[in-house]
Write a structure and sequence with these properties.
The complex is a heterodimer. By secondary structure, chain A is an alpha+beta fold. Chain A has two domains: 69 residues, Arc Repressor Mutant, subunit A (Orthogonal Bundle), CATH 1.10.10; 193 residues, no CATH class. In chain A, 46% of the residues lie in helices and 20% in strands. Chain A is built from nine helices and eight strands. In chain A, a hairpin with a 4-residue loop joins strand 2 and strand 3. In chain A, helix 3 runs antiparallel to helix 6, helix 6 crosses helix 8 and helix 8 runs antiparallel to helix 9. The N terminus of chain A is likely disordered. Chain B has two domains: 109 residues, RNA polymerase sigma factor, region 2, helix turn helix motif (Rna Polymerase Sigma Factor, Chain: A); 87 residues, Arc Repressor Mutant, subunit A (Orthogonal Bundle). Chain B is built from ten helices and no strands. The longest helix of chain B is centred in the first third of the chain and has 23 residues. Classes of the chains: A alpha+beta, B mainly alpha. The interface between A and B is large, with 49 and 86 residues.
């Protein structure tokens, strides 16, 4: 971080001209949050860039106006941002790109699994502050959007399915939005990554997998809540989906989320050694 | 009740910019648009459709695609007018930043294909003022052109390729055959010089 600001500062011009790639753009925007002088500079350079656009003004086809005006009558407007919502929305925008990169890259965020491990070793509780990091909670929120989009394309065909998918997205969003939401991340030794966002208050956890190795058609991944009392199935994940997401209810601290490979259709109890486990630490 | 949450338009804005009177009107119109005023939106359209369409077409080139993106951007202005914050810049900059970014995102999403590669090869040395039926340039537009011409060659080329060409700065460096660091600095220095030349205040 020490040497960054200088290098970063030079990017203000390229940022104002949208000449950064998605990753650098996100990095620069994070830098901007803490650099008032950069904010001022970017503001001025944006105004300047706008003048470059004005210098190239061109007459649009006449039909454009009719189309746009007609569309405004069919388009609901966004409400203004207020208070907490404002901060939350800003966070989401900031992390969405980062997480999109994480999903696309097909590798786990090393810092997240590491931090989560060290938190565990220190024996921190539900309300551990790192785990409430807005960045990651927002990131998983972005993941649920990605997953929901995937669902829309691959699985949802009937209105009934659509409704239940929407209900599930709403339930998932509720966990991600919970004030005490915390995150655990791990990578599976055989490949793929698992992220769990858990709310102790709601006793629910959102399990997101990414890039799990493909299985033969007769096998599926099954997700379990494992406790000293035994294992309870959360649901199945198709191994062909790059991203999978399930909601586990009635979890308590001390439980583990485990993922096993099972015959298609799933099993009543785990029949193989888990490919990944994520403890919901106390 | 919602109206109360919306910041009132400030009497003095931190970024007056060259066309202060016009920009003030735009900020006022955008506040009206945020409350669902269709007539105010027509006013916004009248002021900004030309620059929006112009800059999008400058980047995308294809008229049909440009029309589509311009439509998306202008509708987005309607949709998200409540999110415009006059304390953070002028309405013109808000809308045109959105337009340019949308056009660039469209270009980049096509980058995966070889189409982009071919374009880099065939259009590398295109001059960026050859788009036809440019609107009678406003005074402000003329001033911007003069200021752009006052830059060093490398500054001017870098800025034109990045902004009008929609290239990322590494692509600009490649096209101009100069080091990455050089392009980053030239873009920033050039823009700062333009800003001062046009009297844009930050």
């Amino acid at each position: 971080m020490k040497a960054l600001p200088d290098n970063m500062h030079v990017l203000s011009g390229s940022y104002a001209l949208d000449a950064l790639d998605a990753q650098e753009r996100a990095e620069f925007e994070r830098h901007l949050q803490h650099c008032p002088s950069c904010q001022a500079e970017v503001r001025g350079l944006r105004e300047t860039a706008a003048r470059l656009a004005i210098a190239r003004a061109a007459r649009p086809p006449a039909r454009l106006e009719q189309r746009v005006l007609a569309a405004t009558y069919r388009t609901r407007q966004l409400p203004p941002l207020t208070g907490a919502r404002l901060r939350w929305d800003l966070r989401r925008t900031r992390v969405a790109q980062l997480f999109a990169g994480w999903l696309a890259a097909g590798q786990s965020r090393p810092d997240s699994s590491q931090a989560s491990r060290s938190d565990r070793s220190r024996g921190n509780g539900w309300s551990n502050s790192w785990l409430r990091s807005p960045r990651l909670v927002g990131a998983v929120a972005a993941a649920s959007v990605v997953a929901a989009v995937g669902l829309g394309i691959t699985q949802v065909s009937t209105q009934h399915q659509l409704d239940s998918a929407q209900a599930r997205s709403a339930a998932i969003a509720k966990v991600l939005d919970a004030p005490d939401a915390r995150i655990e991340a791990t990578s599976a030794p055989a490949g793929g990554a698992v992220t769990v966002v858990v709310s102790a208050l709601q006793r629910e956890a959102v399990v997101t997998t990414r890039g799990m190795p493909a299985l033969s058609t007769s096998r599926v991944y099954q997700v379990w809540v494992m406790s000293s009392a035994g294992a309870r199935s959360v649901g199945l994940l198709a191994s062909t989906d790059h991203i999978g997401q399930l909601l586990a209810s009635g979890v308590r601290s001390g439980d583990q989320i485990g993922i096993t490979v099972e015959p298609s259709g799933g099993s009543t109890r785990p029949t193989t050694t888990p490919v990944a486990t994520v403890p919901l630490t106390t | 009740m919602h109206d109360m949450n919306r910041p009132e338009i400030r009497a003095t804005r931190p970024d007056p910019g060259p066309a202060e009177g016009e920009a003030q009107d735009l900020a006022f119109l955008l506040a009206q648009v945020a409350r669902g005023d269709h007539q105010a939106f027509e006013g916004v359209y009248g002021q900004l459709a030309g620059p929006v369409y112009g800059v999008v077409r400058q980047v995308l080139r294809d008229p049909a695609q440009s029309e589509e993106v311009a439509q998306e951007v202008l509708l987005e202005v309607w949709r998200s007018a409540s999110r415009f914050d006059p304390a953070r810049g002028s309405g013109v900059a808000w809308v045109l930043t959105m337009a340019h970014r949308r056009a660039v995102d469209r270009v980049r999403s096509e980058t995966a294909g070889s189409r982009r590669e071919q374009k880099v090869a065939s259009e590398a040395v295109t001059e960026y003022d050859d788009v036809a039926d440019t609107v009678e340039t406003s005074l402000e537009g003329q001033r911007a052109r003069r200021c752009l011409d006052s830059l060093t060659d490398l500054q001017g080329e870098s800025i034109k390729l990045a902004y009008y060409g929609g290239y990322s700065y590494p692509e600009v460096a490649q096209l101009l055959g100069v080091a990455l660091g050089t392009v980053k600095t030239r873009i920033r220095d050039g823009l700062i010089r333009m800003r001062d030349c046009m009297g844009v205040m930050a």
